[in-house]
Structure to design on (660 residues):
C-alpha cells in the first residue's frame, strides 16, 4: 500500500507531503518556543513582592492601588501631599475629588510641573458633599483603593506595609485610625476612641471601625456604597459627616466579621496647622463627635441591627524601623 | 358522614379518639418545648468570647486548648510552671511529656496537692527524645495545642490573647518566638534571628518560622508530623534538636503560606537560671545554632525544596496593657 501511495501521483505528492510536514514541524517549534517563554520564573522561596516595580502603564492592577483624595479649601496641603504620595511604590493613579465648587482645578500648574510618576485625575464636583469621594469612579482600575484625607501624611514605609497587609485581608478596611462604638445600658450607642471605656471583653481595648480617611479597602465597596439605602446617603448629606462610619457598617455587614484591621502607623502626621487657607477640618466642629454617635444609632435603625464587630488585633511591621521592636526580653 | 362516624361504634370510638387527640397534643407541646430550649441566645453584637468559661468537664473543645509540656531534668521548674499554667482560662487539660527516663512521675505529690483546676496527665516516655512531645496523644481532645518549653513562662494575658489570634488563624503556628532562614549566594541556607541580615524584601525584617516551644497550633499537625518521612524523624533524633523547624516546614508545605503568625509577648520569661537541677537547656550547646542551619538544609533535601515563606506581620493586643500602645501621635 505504501509503495503504491508513493508512486501515484509520484513526485508531486511527495513534495506536497514534505512541504506539509515541514510546516507542521515549524508550527510545533514556534508553539514550543512560545510556551517556554510563558513558563513562570521558578523562585525558590515565594517572597511577597515588596520590591518597587518599574513604573509602566501596565503596572499590574492587582499589585497596585489607586489613591483617592478628596479636597476642600486646602489646595496648598493637597499639593504638598501630592508631591509625597505620587512617589509611593505600587501607586497606580491618583484621583483628586475636587470639592472646591466653581474653582478651577490646578491642572495647568500641575502639567507645567511634570512629568509626574503617575497619572493624576482631577474630578470636578458640582456640589460640596462629603460622600463625593465614595463614587465608583470610572478611572479606577485597581482592586485596591487608598483613601486619604487631604491633611494627612502617612510615610511611604507605613503605606507599603499596610498595602501588603491589605493584600492578605482584602475584604477588610486596613488602616491607621481605629475607633469604636460602645453599648450603654439604655441600648443607645455611643461613638469614640480610647477615652471611652473598653467594651469589656477580656483585657485591653477593642475597636470596631477603621476610619477611611487613612486606609486601604477594596474598590468593590464603592459600588456597594452606591447601592446602599437612600437613607444612608441622606444621613451623610445631612451631617456632612459619617461616611466612614457608614462604610464600616457596610463592610461589617458584608463580611460578618470586624470591618477593619488596624495597622499601627510609625509615622503619621496631621498637616492641618500647616495650611495657609485658615480652614480647619470638619472634626473641629463642636458637634462633630455627637454627630457621629447620632450616626451610629441612625445606621443601626436603617440596617435594623448593629453589624459592627470588635477586634483587638493590632498589626505592626516586624523589625521596622529596627529589630528592637520585637527583640525578645527573655 | 361525620355523624355516621360518630355513631358507630359510638362512645368507645369517641373515647379512643379523645385519648389519641390528647396524646398528639401533649407530644406536640413537648416537641415545642424542646425546640424553644434549643433556640440560640440572640446576642446583639457577636463578641469574641474572651470571658472565662466555668471549668466543667464539658468546656467546649473548640473554645479551649491543651497544654503539652515536655520536661527533662527540671522538675522544679515544671511544677512552678504547672501552678501558673493550670489556671489559664480556656485551658482544657495539661499533658506532661515525662522525658526523665526511669524516674517516677510526681503523681503522688501532685494528687496530694489537689484539687487542680484541670486534669494533668503525665506521659511516661521510654526513650529521652526531643520529638516525644510531637506524638498524637490520645488524651488530646481539643483542636488547639499550646506547646511550651519547660523553662518558659508566658503571662496569662499573652496566652489568652494569642489563643484568640490562633482561633482566627487556625492553620498557622501562632506564637511568641520568631526566627528566620536566609539564603546565601552559594544556595546554602542559614538559620537565625534578627542578627542575620534581613531577607531584603522592602523594609524591616522578616521571619519564616515561629518556634513551637511557646506557641499554639492545630492538633491535627501532630498526626501530620507522625506521617512525615522517616528521614525527618531520624534527623530530629540525630540532633536532638530541630523538631520545631521540622514542624514549620510541615505547616508551610501544608498551607502554602508562611507557617507562623508572630504575636509580640508583653510578658515572657525564661526561668532557666531558676532551676536547682543545674541543668541548662539544649540551646546552650556550642553547636546548637549550627545544627539548626544544618537541619534547614537537610529538610530542604528531604522535601526537595524550600517551603518556608516569609512574613513581617507582628500582632499585638490593642490597648493592652494600656491605650498608650496605640495612641495616635497625630
Amino acid at each position: 500500500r505504501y509503495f503504491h501511495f508513493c508512486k501515484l501521483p509520484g513526485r508531486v505528492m511527495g513534495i506536497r507531503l514534505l512541504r506539509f510536514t515541514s510546516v507542521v514541524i515549524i508550527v510545533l517549534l514556534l508553539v514550543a518556543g512560545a510556551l517556554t517563554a510563558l513558563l513562570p520564573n521558578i523562585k525558590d522561596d515565594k517572597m511577597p513582592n515588596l520590591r518597587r516595580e518599574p513604573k509602566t502603564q501596565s503596572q499590574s492592577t492587582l499589585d497596585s492601588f489607586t489613591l483617592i483624595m478628596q479636597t476642600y479649601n486646602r489646595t496648598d496641603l493637597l499639593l504638598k501631599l501630592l508631591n509625597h504620595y505620587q512617589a509611593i511604590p505600587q501607586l497606580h493613579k491618583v484621583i483628586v475629588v475636587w470639592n472646591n465648587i466653581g474653582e478651577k482645578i490646578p491642572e495647568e500648574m500641575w502639567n507645567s510641573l511634570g512629568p509626574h510618576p503617575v497619572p493624576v485625575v482631577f474630578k470636578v464636583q458640582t456640589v460640596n458633599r462629603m460622600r463625593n469621594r465614595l463614587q465608583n469612579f470610572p478611572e479606577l482600575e485597581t482592586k485596591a483603593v487608598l483613601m486619604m484625607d487631604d491633611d494627612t501624611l502617612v510615610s511611604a514605609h507605613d503605606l507599603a506595609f499596610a498595602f501588603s497587609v491589605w493584600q492578605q485581608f482584602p475584604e477588610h478596611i486596613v488602616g491607621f485610625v481605629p475607633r469604636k462604638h460602645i453599648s450603654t445600658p439604655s441600648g443607645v450607642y455611643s461613638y469614640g476612641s480610647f477615652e471611652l471605656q473598653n467594651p469589656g471583653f477580656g483585657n485591653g481595648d477593642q475597636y470596631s471601625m477603621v476610619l477611611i480617611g487613612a486606609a486601604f479597602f477594596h474598590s468593590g465597596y464603592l459600588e456597594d456604597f452606591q447601592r446602599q439605602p437612600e437613607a444612608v446617603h441622606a444621613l451623610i448629606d445631612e451631617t456632612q459627616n459619617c461616611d466612614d462610619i457608614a462604610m464600616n457598617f457596610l463592610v461589617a455587614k458584608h463580611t460578618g466579621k470586624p470591618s477593619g484591621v488596624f495597622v499601627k502607623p510609625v509615622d503619621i502626621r496631621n498637616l492641618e496647622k500647616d495650611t495657609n487657607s485658615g480652614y480647619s477640618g470638619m472634626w473641629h466642629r463642636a458637634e462633630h463627635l455627637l454627630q457621629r454617635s447620632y450616626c451610629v444609632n441612625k445606621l443601626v435603625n436603617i440596617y435594623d441591627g448593629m453589624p459592627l464587630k470588635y477586634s483587638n488585633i493590632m498589626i505592626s511591621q516586624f523589625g521596622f524601623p529596627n529589630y528592637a521592636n520585637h527583640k525578645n526580653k527573655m
Summary: The domain at 84-315 of chain A is CATH 3.90.550.10 (Spore Coat Polysaccharide Biosynthesis Protein SpsA; Chain A). The mean pLDDT of chain A is 87.
